[in-house]
Amino acid sequence: MSIIKFDMKSQLPRSFVLSNGVEMPSVGLGTYQMNEDELKLAIKVALDVGYRMFDTAANYKNEGFIGEILARELMERDMKRSDVFIITKLSPKDQGYDKTVDAMRKSASLLGGYIDLYLIHWPGVSKTDPSSAQNAVGRCESWLAMQDIYSEAAQTQSQSEREGTGTGTDTGTGTGAGIGTGIGKPLVRAIGVSNYHVVHLQALLADPALRVPPAVNQVELHPCYHPTDLRKFCTDAGVHLQAYSPLGRGNLLAPEFLRQFPEVRGMVREGGEGLACVYLKWALQNGFSVLPKSRDGDRIRGNIAMFDDGNGPPHGTSLSPDQMRLLDQVQNARLEKFCWDSQSVA
Ligand code: A2P
After folding, report:
1. 276 C-alpha vs ligand 1 centroid, how far in Å?
2. Hey, whose CA ends up nearest to atom 9 of ligand 1?
3. pLDDT in tens, 65-121
4. DSSP state, residue 266
């Protein structure tokens, strides 16, 4: 059972403690397909309204912008790199041991010297037939590289803690560090996977070479798609589930969806948070962290309004058991995935 730190006012999870003891904020900003100008606005607003987690990927080709913008914005606010939690992911084209090491170093150097959570983006290797056994070979090698780097990072961390020398993660001024650099800075704080189905997780956990289990599986999750088997498997295995596209790419906000599920609109509290927050609360109360994505300042603000400390609604803004049940059952009437599916990857 993972540890959850609750927001006093709303009684919603503020952060989750991962299986390796690392604390991760419960809400982060998704940045898929966001360009430099969009990120400048989005990150500024996000930091202003309380987001402390940012999700990117090598494939998004915006890690460099995010690293630069965050460094500037943090400095202006007198904040440190360690005040934010950055997630990034290994591109499917970089699967394999050596390529993974290089890719991790590159991402870390772009994101302030280290990565808080590094994920295998996809169980498949690019340009490889989904049915090919090479997919399993590639992701397995990548995991070995990630766990080696992680283990070295964890060792460095505990050694510097013992010696009282600090880890370097507070300043965030370094470039790529950790494995093979000899300068004693951890490169990554936690490792995990993304878009893994139960079969992929089973194979990873059964690998005799596994020393570090995945802390997180980041997948598409919302009321139209939250597979029971995956939820149970992850809970039992201590793998935290993280929701990307928690608004179903915006489809769950569409009039057409609300015509089918009018009760959902009724869950919006008058004078309180908007409809998006209903879905985000549902995810948080189910124990998922969430990564809503928006380019719009007002929507970025609105998507974290369930924690509004100043002008927000009074205590007890979490969803009732009946409301949770209703949303849990939406997928029985409408099972729909809005993003890509890795089910066919061997
Ligand atoms: P926009 O960038 O114009 O705000 P998801 O996180 O599920 O992938 O959803 C992302 C999509 O939902 C984006 O197209 C985003 O568009 C839209 N979106 C995000 N937050 C809101 C909101 N609060 N209200 C309406 N649309 C939203």
Report:
1. 8
2. 249
3. 999 999 999 999 999 999 999 999 999 999 999 999 999 999 999 999 999 999 999
4. T
Closest ligand 1 atom to the C-alpha of 245?
Answer: 7
Closest CA to 265 of 252, 281, 247, 282: 252
Cα gap 242→257, rounded to integer Å: 23
Give the C-alpha separation, 124 to 137, whole Å: 9
* CA 31 to each of CA 3, 35, 55: distance values in angstroms, whole numbers, following the listed order: 27, 9, 6
Residue 263 contacts residue 2 (beta carbons within 8 Å): no
Letter for the amino acid at 259? R
- 8 A C-beta contact, residue 141 and residue 97: yes
How long a stretch of residues is the chain?
346
Q: What is the full DSSP assignment across 58-120?
A: GGGT-HHHHHHHHHHHHHHTT--GGGSEEEEEE-GGG-SHHHHHHHHHHHHHHTTS-EEEEEE
Strand arrangement of the beta sheet that strand 3-6 belongs to: 3-6, 13-17, 23-25
Strands 53-55 and 29-30: parallel
Query: Which of 3, 47, 27, 151 has the alpha carbon at shortest distance from 87?
Result: 27
Give SS3 for 279: helix
Decide: pTM greater than 0.85.
Answer: yes
Ligand 1 atom closest to Cα of residue 299 = 23
Q: Which residue has 């930091």 as its token pair?
A: 47
Tell me the CA distances in angstroms from 187 to 13, 97, 108, 170, 181, one per residue in order.
27, 16, 7, 13, 10
Is 152's pLDDT higher than 90?
no
Task: Name every protein residue with a CB atom under 6 angstroms from any ligand 1 atom.
Answer: 30, 245-250, 253, 274, 276, 292-296, 299, 302-303
Cβ atoms of 156 and 147 closer than 8 Å: no
